[in-house]
Amino acid sequence: MKIRPKRLQVGDTVGVVALCSPLAMDKLPDQLKVLEELGLKYKLGKTIGLTGKYLSGTDEERANDLHEMIDDPEIKAIFCLRGGYGAARIADKIDYQLLMENPKIFWGFSDVTYFHNAFHEYCNIVTFHGPMLSSVTKKSLSDLSKRMFQQLFRPLEIQYDENISPLHTIVPGSVRGEFVGGNMHRLVSTLGTKYEMDTTNKIILFEEIGEPLQKIDGMLNQLRLARKLEAAAGFAIGSFTELEIGAKLEDVYAIFEEYLKPLNKPTLAGFKIGHCEPNIAVPLGVEAILDATYKTLRILPGVE
To answer: What region holds the LD-carboxypeptidase C-terminal domain (predicted)?
Structure first.
């Protein structure tokens, strides 16, 4: 059983960090409105405003910023400003014992998947796969996306069915297991490292953006050869957006069917989780029940 961080209270202070790619400072005010609307105060990390070709400061600056947020008793949650690239570069510079001793809400997705996976393995804590604050600079978060932040203020069970989005059964059946995963490319990049994802008896979430069908096939094949697919209990397929010209979502599902149907693992696709809007935030590291036959996903609360 993983450690659930304490719930937020209105008036709490949270930290905002840029642990991956940088973001222009002129866009920051719009991003922070989401936190203000939730009644939260915030502290900006030292990585906010740092620039580089594709990293928000040096590896040391980003690791130190994370450590300071974890060690600050006033900070009750840590929100990642944006993804991009850079999480894996500091995975071996993080003090995991510090986070285990000071469990806090950790929120983000995309490149942040690398942190989710590492924190589950080395800190044994629940984390949250949710919209980056930077997403509000492209377009306002939908009301549904905003409502998902409420799971941080009280223990809420996530119940996903076709009232939220159409769902497609790839492999029927029902299964219960720990819900983990995230961005497919980042999960595959853990293979062969000390942060290699553990899929044993778990329900795996996959989402992706901008990858051609050939690359999606290649990633699934690598997971197959690493025996990660056969070890899993089931699969929840989130959003696969910005496909190559001429490719359809049905083509993506056909690739998953080719790899997963022989394993007979319950698999349900079509979840609005990932690079999409709405982007349904979910806790990772908690128990879930996936019913691919009746097209439902129930996830236990992520906070205590």
So the answer is: 176-289
